Amino acid sequence: MNRLILSSALIVGIVVLIAPRLGEGDAPADSASDAAMVVDEAAPVPAGGQAAIERDGSGQFHVEGDVDGTQVRFLVDTGADVVALSEGDAQRMGIVPDPGSFRPMVRTASGTGYGAPIRLDRLVVADQELSDVDAIVVRGLPVSLLGQSALRRLGPVTLEGDRLLIGG
């Protein structure tokens, strides 16, 4: 029950942090076809290029990434200081933090969340490869977040209507 409450609180916290940044006045997603929109995969983004991510049916931006050889679906969170991995994604990568390494480090709508700091050797997102990326594994996090420890290294992040542009 506590896990469900924490998960719900994290989702609310993420929505509260992200929703205002998604562009006030933009038209809401209005069809089932919007839910099928994902990363623009028409062509690879050249080094120094720009990746365009379409808003999905929930009004958020998701991007596929490769973390140390494991595919991870990230919610782009410009308000998150670091990349935050769900425990499930971390376990798929073979990352199982010592339970004693979790400490209060995440603010949510319902209080403090617990995370364990880690470092990602290699992260590929928006066709750019990053190394030595600061991250945390967060207890109860329902989806992994692509935060500023990666975004600021990828280049500018800008919103144009229902597209989030990364890099350039």
TrEMBL record:
Coiled coil: none annotated. It is an enzyme of class 3 (hydrolase). Its EC number is 3.4.23.-. GO terms for biological process: proteolysis. The keyword Hydrolase applies. GO terms for molecular function: peptidase activity. It holds the Pfam family gag-asp_proteas. CDD domains: retropepsin_like_bacteria. This is TIGR02281 family clan AA aspartic protease.
